[in-house]
Design brief:
Keywords: ATP-binding, Cell membrane, Membrane, Nucleotide-binding, Translocase, Transport
Pfam family, one: ABC_tran
Helix content: 10-25%
GO molecular function: ATP binding
Organism: Micromonospora humidisoli
Number of domains: 2
Number of helices: 8
Bound molecules: adenosine-5'-triphosphate
Protein name: ABC transporter ATP-binding protein
Radius of gyration: 24 Å
CATH class of the largest domain: Alpha Beta
CATH superfamily of the largest domain: P-loop containing nucleotide triphosphate hydrolases
Length: about 350
């Protein structure tokens, strides 16, 4: 078993409120990602679960038992940090074996555990080498194997892939997902990288300024963001938000445009709204009835696609287009909108008006 539940966590450092009532439920065996920008309180949340800091308020339950007052050592959790130095004089094998040796596990058990973990991380051939004979990425794999070789109640991981180059990070995302599946262990994984969160998590908790904005599957968080902040934080390029209001059968933009009002748009006539449009749900090629007039503002070629910026009144729409798209800034264009996939928010509260009904 490895359930982790925290309730109403509060923690201030002097005048900084790092956690302002964080409640999370991590099911046994989940790959649970806590996603948020720098300073959101992610590390503080992990440290609270591990029992490393005294809390101002709140509780931590492990496997259903109140562990709030337990010392870190008896919580049976393994913390994996972004910087984990290897012992330079020891071989990779000895490094990986060290946590089990420290616990005086039998030699046969240690050998089997090292073999299994090095197989999962594809480092069998490196076991006799010392850290100085390994590349950075290989060292990181050995370090990860050393962290994962134990079988604690749950693994708490604080941005463990941050120091890797992009290619290796992408590879390790796949590896970690595979390792998680094969270990069947509970992972609580902290990151500020939304791609990491969306690609690896079963469940994502989005954290901002010490408060949980939304918890859901990656699809739920991306497709049905609870508010404008989550909508803007998750997704690249960021979602475009256009000021508008509903008027009978139409949405009317502050910039003067009109679009047919989608069936799910339950807003009151005149209510100040923000229409959220993701770049992939827009097109500069004419395809449908719903479209917005604009002016081409800029092109950002990204290899496999080009992001086209279109100015609509005072607002910029980001449109994902084919890499072959061409255009000249200042050119008049129309942006076709897939309204079935659009999002609507209350402009005052920022809360979604469409998330529940979709
Ligand atoms: N020991 C400390 N003393 C003072 N302030 C702290 C301490 N630890 C954290 N904070 C503050 O608490 C807030 C939350 O910090 P935390 O490290 O949990 O954020 P984070 O989401 O993990 O950020 P990052 O992604 O940058 O690691 C920040 O404003 C931070 O400056």
């Amino acid at each position: 078993m490895g359930t982790v539940a925290v309730q109403g966590l509060r923690k201030s450092f002097g005048r900084v409120r790092a956690l302002d009532g964080v409640t999370l439920d991590v099911p046994d065996g989940a790959f649970f990602v806590v996603l948020g920008p720098s300073g959101a309180g992610k590390t503080t949340t992990l440290r609270a679960i591990a029992g490393l800091d005294k809390l101002d308020a709140g509780s931590v339950h492990l496997d259903g038992r109140d562990a709030t007052a337990d010392a870190p050592a008896v919580r049976d959790l393994a913390m994996v940090f972004q910087n984990y130095a290897l012992y330079p004089r020891h071989t990779a094998y000895e490094n990986i074996a060290s946590p089990l040796r420290a616990r005086r596990r039998p030699a046969g058990e240690i050998a089997a555990a090292v073999e299994r973990m090095s197989g999962l991380l594809h480092i069998e051939r490196l076991l006799h080498r010392r850290p100085a004979q390994l590349s950075g990425g290989e060292m990181q794999r050995v370090a990860l194997a050393r962290a994962l070789v134990r079988s604690p109640r749950a693994f708490l991981m604080d941005e463990p892939l941050t120091n890797l180059d992009l290619k290796l990070r992408v590879e390790m995302r796949t590896e970690l997902t595979r390792i998680h599946r094969s270990l069947g262990a509970t992972f609580v994984y902290v990151t500020n990288d939304q791609v990491e969160a969306l690609s690896m998590a079963d469940q994502v908790a989005v954290l901002r300024e010490g408060t949980v904005q939304q918890v859901g599957t990656p699809t739920e968080v991306y497709e049905r963001p609870a508010n404008t902040w989550v909508a803007g934080f998750v997704g690249s390029p960021p979602i475009s938000l256009l000021a508008c209001h509903a008027e009978g059968d139409h949405l009317v933009g502050a910039a003067g445009w009109t679009l047919p009002r989608p069936r799910w748009a339950t807003a009151k006539d005149g209510q100040a709204l923000l229409l959220g449009l993701r770049a992939e749900d827009l097109s500069v090629e004419r395809r449908g009835d719903a479209s917005l007039p604009g002016e081409l503002y800029g092109l950002e070629p990204l290899g496999d696609r080009t992001v086209v910026d279109v100015r609509v009144g005072a607002e910029i729409l980001k449109v994902k287009a084919r890499p072959t798209v061409t255009g000249t800034p200042g050119e008049q264009v129309r942006v076709t909108v897939d309204l079935g996939r659009a999002h609507l928010f209350d402009a005052g509260t920022g809360l979604s008006l469409s998330a529940a009904g979709r």
